[in-house]
Amino acid sequence: MGAGIAQCLAQAGREVIVVEPDPTAVERARRGLDEAVRLALLLGRGDRRTALDTARRVRWSDTIDEFDAADFVIECAVERIELKEKLFADLDRVCPDDTVLASITSAIPIARLAAATARPDRVLGLHFMNPAPLTDAVEVVRGAATSPDTMARATDLLTALGKQPIVVGDRPGFVLNRLLMLSIAEAAALLDAGETAATVDDLFEQCLGHRMGPLRTADLIGLDNVADTIEVLRRETGEQHYRVPPALAALVTAGHFGRKTGQGFHDYR
C-alpha cells in the first residue's frame, strides 16, 4: 500500500520519501512501483515523461530521521497497535511541530495514535483503498482532537491527488471496516461450514451486483492484514463476532495472503 500511495503523490508532483528499514521490502516496493507506473501507462494515465518524473520524485530511505523537514507524513506500517503507537511517538520527536501525521490504519482508533504524540490536533486517519492509484475514494478519519486546519490540509492534499475524501468519525474500524471485516469473517466462516469461496463471492457479485464478493475483496486487501484488522476490532470493541475463522487463520499460517502471494481464498497462479 505504501508504494501505491507514494505513486499517487509523485504523479501529482510531490517529492516523496519512502522509509522502509527492510532492504528486501524496499526492493519489492521498488518493483511494485515500477509495475504500477507501467500499468498506469497501459491504462492511458499519463505518458512516458510522466512515468519517468514519477520515479524520480520518489526517494527511498531506511530511517525516519529523513522526515525532519517533512510537512505531511502518511504512516503505512502493519496493523499492530503497539508498533504504530511507538512509530507515532518517534515521528512526533523527529518531525517539525506543524507536520501532519496521518495513518492508513484499517481499524485502530485515531485517538490512540494521537495520544502517543504531543500534537493530537495534527493527527488523523487516511484510509486509502487498495490499489491506491486506481481507487478514487479515501476514508478520512477525524479524531476528537483533530483541528480544522489539519482536516483542510488533508482534504486539500487528497483533492490534489484526484481523490474523493469521505469524512467519518473516530471509532474502531471507522465505518468501512467496521462493516467489511464482519462480512469477510462471516463469509470465511461459511467455508468452515462447507460452502466454497466461489459460491459465496458469486452470490454477492451476481445477486447483489457487487464488483467483488467479500472473499475476493479480502484476497485483494491481503489476508494477513485482514486477520490483523479483525483482531484489532475484537480487542478494541470487545465484540466477539469479530473473530478470525479457522479457514482464514489456516491460510495466513500457510503464508497464503491472497493476490500478493498468488493464493488465498481463490487461486491466482
UniProtKB/TrEMBL annotation:
It comes from the Bacteria. SUPFAM superfamilies: 6-phosphogluconate dehydrogenase C-terminal domain-like, NAD(P)-binding Rossmann-fold domains. Pathway: Lipid metabolism; butanoate metabolism. Pfam families: 3HCDH, 3HCDH_N. Residues 1-170 form the 3-hydroxyacyl-CoA dehydrogenase NAD binding domain. GO terms for molecular function: NAD+ binding; oxidoreductase activity, acting on the CH-OH group of donors, NAD or NADP as acceptor. The record marks 127 as: Important for catalytic activity. Keywords: Oxidoreductase. Residues 173-268 form the 3-hydroxyacyl-CoA dehydrogenase C-terminal domain. InterPro entries: 3-OHacyl-CoA_DH, 3-OHacyl-CoA_DH_NAD-bd, 3HC_DH_C, 6-PGluconate_DH-like_C_sf, 6PGD_dom2, NAD(P)-bd_dom_sf. GO terms for biological process: fatty acid metabolic process. PANTHER family: 3-HYDROXYACYL-COA DEHYDROGENASE FAMILY PROTEIN (PTHR48075), 3-HYDROXYBUTYRYL-COA DEHYDROGENASE (PTHR48075:SF5). Belongs to the 3-hydroxyacyl-CoA dehydrogenase family. This is 3-hydroxyacyl-CoA dehydrogenase family protein. It comes from Nocardia otitidiscaviarum.
